[in-house]
Design brief:
Elements lengths: L10 H13 L13 H12 L3 E2 L5 H5 L2 H14 L5 H12 L8 H10 L4 E4 L6 H9 L2 E5 L6 H10 L6 E4 L15 E4 L7 E2 L8 H18 L5 E5 L2 H10 L7 E4 L11 E6 L1
Parallel strand pairs: 2-3, 2-5, 3-4, 5-7
Antiparallel strand pairs: 1-6, 7-9, 8-9
Length: 275
């Protein structure tokens, strides 16, 4: 089965989704919406299908097994969801195997506006939600990610908005980047939640390595060369407690709670360090 069928947009649908992104207006209060998500699904479906939660199967792995497909089809019947066969199958996989989460465009635009960002650095770029926020506001964006498989999707997303002059993507380890050469005044990123989600080309050498050799070193590096005041990191409350409690990093100055879902009960925190 062609993976594109799971979240494919026609040319007319692409234009509608593009216009939704461009016309979205973020108010002073954070406005939760899924605007932009359909574009991320459309352009990154190939890589999304290879990504999976720890100890769960990717969609590619499931589609290679008649037994696993049958299990999902049984879930489809029980849930009685609407849509095409492919879209229903995708949603059941997403629900049953642990959702691969997007950082919503609306959350990035809220933070960019509130903290007066004009040149964003995102050192674990992920699926593209923070890029869409920059596009919505017309500001510059630098994204870094080790996953080279994301490049085709990002190229198409940037081309759709003709945003090549303001968007720079680097497909390499964030640890190897010379941040002194980059021009940015705001940092917003959402690093992997340790090894909860397994991505292509993602280095992971254990919990100690993640905090000591990856997260802490990167936060320090980007803070050093940030021409603005704010370095914003989206991690879970449990990870933040480890960061400052076990690994003795300095507590943040501001916490923004951006609920992952509308009226959600699970905190989705942005921890902000000021310099």
């Amino acid at each position: 089965m062609d993976l594109k069928l799971f979240k494919h947009l026609t040319d007319d649908m692409l234009l509608k989704e593009k216009n939704k992104v461009l016309k979205f207006k973020q108010t002073g209060k954070n406005k939760t919406t899924f605007v932009g998500n359909n574009l991320l699904y459309h352009f990154q479906i190939q890589e999304l299908s290879r990504t999976h939660r720890k100890n769960k199967l990717s969609l590619v792995e499931i589609m290679a097994s008649e037994i696993e497909v049958k299990k999902l089809e049984q879930q489809m019947e029980r849930r009685n969801r609407t849509g095409t066969y492919e879209s229903k199958l995708f949603e059941c996989w997403r629900i049953d195997n642990g959702s691969i989460c997007f950082f919503k465009m609306c959350n990035s635009t809220f933070l960019y506006k509130k903290y007066n960002a004009t040149k964003v650095l995102d050192f674990t770029a992920g699926w593209g939600g923070r890029l869409l926020g920059a596009i919505n506001l017309g500001i510059e964006y630098i994204g870094i990610d080790t996953n080279v498989n994301l490049k085709p999707g990002y190229d198409k997303l940037i081309d759709l908005f003709d945003y090549g002059a303001k968007a720079t993507m680097l497909y390499q380890s964030a640890l190897d980047v010379d941040y002194e050469t980059l021009d940015y005044d705001f940092v917003l990123t959402s690093p992997p939640y340790e090894d909860i989600e397994v991505y292509s080309h993602m280095p992971y050498e254990g919990v100690d390595w993640f905090y000591k050799e990856f997260l802490i070193k990167l936060i320090d590096k980007v803070r050093k060369y940030n021409k603005g005041k704010y370095t914003c990191i989206n991690i879970s409350p449990q990870m933040y407690k480890k960061l400052i409690g076990i690994y003795n990093y300095a507590p943040c100055d501001i916490t923004e709670d951006l609920k992952e879902q509308k009226n959600g009960k699970t905190p989705d925190n942005i921890y902000i360090w000021m310099d």
